[in-house]
């Protein structure tokens, strides 16, 4: 997450909204092999599929990543302020390519209104040299070394989480990492998101429809609020506004969540939880909300067969990771797939 300085430049997060209780795990403890930190990661990934990762106190990766996040938030405001006609030259083209700009209003919310966000996806493959670089505006190209460094540090964190989860589940430490090597083509992206301010009453609504991520692990940096998690209590309905809990961003902490691929591989032992982007809470809604994320996905040819846990693979077990991603993306775009949290431990409302 960004440094405390950026948090001082925005309206305060309100104290009168329901907050999702989340485990906070120290990156330094996790990287040192601390048993309590490892167990906390497993519990978080079974109960909610989300946790906070505190980068502070880790001089090798965490400190540098906080500095890079600050710089990329500044870059993000410049990039997303490029003229619309310039951004339109670099649009994504799903399912052919997930890379490039996604314009505001291209998708729908649960009320069938246009969404209120835009993003830019920069592929890991181009940043790593696995494939030729994707076409990007000159301004974005000037920041590519910074994006690449941020990605490299994020890969280190993702590797630590993968190894921790594998070990806690009784698998070889490299089980999950071997299916998502950074040197092979994949759908992994660095994503900049701008969700627009909500000054008018009609803007006080969902910006990005509820969904689960369909990759493996997402690292998210926010300063403003807006992310909501569906309470994991059984049978909670996304249409019930009382079922949604706000995530309160914290200086120096990343928000980490699991995607559907980890649920598929573990036969439902781990959890991918429904979440959405709402208008920012309280006075924060008057400010554009920027986010920075790394969305890790398996390498394209990885098998989606179950690696551990009970039950059948289902029809998705015969797919490659790329086939899986295209299937998920197109179903989400068409709105013909019921969105629900997957995997994890049966539970009532979350209490930590």
UniProtKB/TrEMBL annotation:
Keyword field: Iron, Metal-binding, Oxidoreductase
Domain Fe2OG dioxygenase: start-end pairs: 188-298
InterPro entries associated with the record: DIOX_N, IPNS-like_FE2OG_OXY, IPNS-like_sf, Iron_ascorbate_oxido_reductase, Oxoglu/Fe-dep_dioxygenase_dom
Keyword Ribosomal protein: no
Example GO molecular function: metal ion binding
Domain of life (superkingdom): Eukaryota
Short name of any one Pfam family annotated for the protein: 2OG-FeII_Oxy
Protein family membership: Belongs to the iron/ascorbate-dependent oxidoreductase family.
Stated name of the protein: Fe2OG dioxygenase domain-containing protein
Organism whose genome encodes this protein: Diatrype stigma
């Amino acid at each position: 997450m960004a440094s405390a300085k950026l948090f001082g430049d925005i309206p305060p997060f309100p104290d009168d909204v329901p907050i999702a209780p989340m485990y906070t795990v120290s990156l330094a403890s996790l990287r040192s092999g601390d048993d309590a930190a490892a167990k906390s990661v497993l519990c978080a990934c079974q109960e909610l599929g989300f946790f906070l990762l505190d980068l502070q106190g880790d001089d090798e990766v965490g400190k540098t990543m906080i500095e890079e996040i600050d710089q990329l938030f500044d870059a993000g405001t410049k990039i997303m302020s490029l003229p619309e006609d310039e951004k339109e030259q670099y649009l994504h083209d799903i399912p052919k390519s997930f890379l490039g700009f996604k314009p505001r209003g291209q998708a729908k919310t649960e009320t069938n209104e246009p969404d209120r966000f835009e993003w830019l996806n920069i592929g890991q493959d181009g940043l790593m040299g696995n494939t030729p670089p994707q076409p990007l505006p000159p301004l974005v190209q000037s920041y590519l070394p910074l994006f690449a460094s941020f990605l490299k540090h994020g890969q280190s964190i993702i590797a630590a989480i993968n190894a921790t989860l594998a070990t806690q589940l009784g698998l070889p430490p490299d089980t999950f990492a071997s299916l998502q090597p950074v040197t092979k083509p994949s759908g992994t992206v660095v994503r900049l998101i701008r969700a627009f301010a909500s000054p008018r009453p009609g803007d006080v609504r969902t910006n990005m429809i509820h969904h689960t991520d369909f990759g493996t692990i997402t690292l998210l940096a926010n300063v403003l609020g807006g992310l909501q998690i569906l309470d994991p209590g059984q049978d909670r309905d996304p249409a019930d506004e009382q079922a949604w809990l706000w995530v309160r961003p914290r200086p120096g902490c990343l928000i980490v969540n699991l995607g559907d691929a980890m649920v598929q591989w573990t036969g439902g032992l781990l959890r991918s939880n429904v979440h959405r982007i709402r208008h920012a809470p309280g006075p924060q809604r008057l400010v554009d909300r920027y986010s920075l994320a790394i969305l890790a996905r398996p390498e394209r040819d990885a098998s989606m067969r179950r690696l551990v846990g009970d039950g059948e693979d289902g029809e998705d077990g015969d797919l490659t990771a790329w086939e899986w991603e295209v299937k998920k993306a197109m179903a989400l775009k068409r709105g013909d797939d019921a969105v629900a949290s997957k995997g994890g431990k049966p539970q009532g409302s979350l209490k930590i």
